[in-house]
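Record type: monomer structure entry
Structure origin: computed from sequence
Chain ID: A
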Amino acid sequence: MTTTESPESASGGGYREITGSKGRVYRVGETDREILGHSRKLMVYLPWAAMMSISVFEYAYGSAEDVLGKAHGWTQGNTFWILSVWVFFQAGVAFPAGWLREKGMLTARRAMFLGAGLSLIGFLAISHFHNVFAAIVGFGVLGGIGAGFVYATSINMVGKWFPERRGGKTGFVNGGFAYGSVPFIFIFNYVFDTGNYQAWLDAIGLYVLAVVAICAWFFKDPPKNWWPADVDPLAAESASGKDAASLAKNPPAVRQYSPKEAMRTGMLPLMWLLVVMTAGVSIFGISFQVPYAKEVGFGPFVAASSMGVMSVVNGVGRAAMGWLSDKWGRKTTLIFVIVVLGLAQFGVLWAGSIQNEVLFLIFAFISGFGGGAFYPMFAALTPDYFGENYNATNYGIAYSGKLVSGLFGGGLGSMAIDAWGYDGAYVLAGVISLVAAVLALFLHQPGRKRVRDISANPQPISREAV
């Protein structure tokens, strides 16, 4: 075992750096309170609150489209492409934002402040600009970049502070990105109209600005290689309590992989492809569930409720599956979620075709569950496979798959509906998700020989091995 002590540690404080046999360095000895001045639990609740606030962008937008179209003279295609551009930039900024943070050119706090300001501009754009191109630039480009800064920074923050049990924590934070939109879904369906839309959108923009800015003030990354002082990284299998169960199913990465190294393993490109496919199906459901409900003759209450149910279960499902992945293992949980997402597309289509409102709400429930729960799995798998030091960049690469999926989930989804109707579009979405589940079988942690070593019988990291 190689151990390096900081100068402070010789006088009773500071930290030690322990290097394992495969090269991974653990910085141990410092508590979260010594670094932050308070418990690291705050690095769960603040990112969660920030994610709650920006959820209105994606999950409530579909409920506002009709009014926006009438107020500005936009077609359905115009409103769908505005959201698609937003998704493209919200996902696309994750990689450059992560790179800037890890190069020391942008702190987490500044990234959040920047995100807060750009998010406000996004809502002001669709509130006051009638020109479609101006709305695309304001909401789609600038608003998307702003929301992307907030999303990527929040997700990476919780992953860095909870390396030993990140599944449940990441799922909880990620869940806020869905169910935080529920009040706005009902506002947009019941009280939002062409007479008051500007006042509502301006107020929502100020709300997002205030929440994100307040949270940003407290954001701070842990030092590189930091590991909780009360969890022994070299005896992960013998750690006490719930940490032992999580680490047994999801052992730490064998070393810290740079983005280039992570790409060469083949696992990061596979994650990117899976995000493209699963996020595309999820965005399709978010974009078209309310229009489809109205198309088949369901009233505004069922349409709004189906989206509200989807958003709630989408968020709760993220938290639940994040927690369950600590017990089952990330890969097993991810495959389960993707299969559920695929089957739910056929269920929504069937319920709509027979015009059964109860079944429609049930399958909306299931679709919402599957359509969000895979996000925290990728957010947790990335540092599980490649370590925490480059997680902002590595996860940014994986999550950037959503920028492609935003195009075929929203804009191209609209084209599929025009060409084949809702029947063909929903069947295609279901098939894509099931194919993704098959591809997910090939995921495995770099540095470990067999998939089952990770999900069923991971090799313990013992002191004798270092």
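Annotation 1: The mean pLDDT is 82.
Annotation 2: Strands lie at 2-5, 16-19, 25-28.
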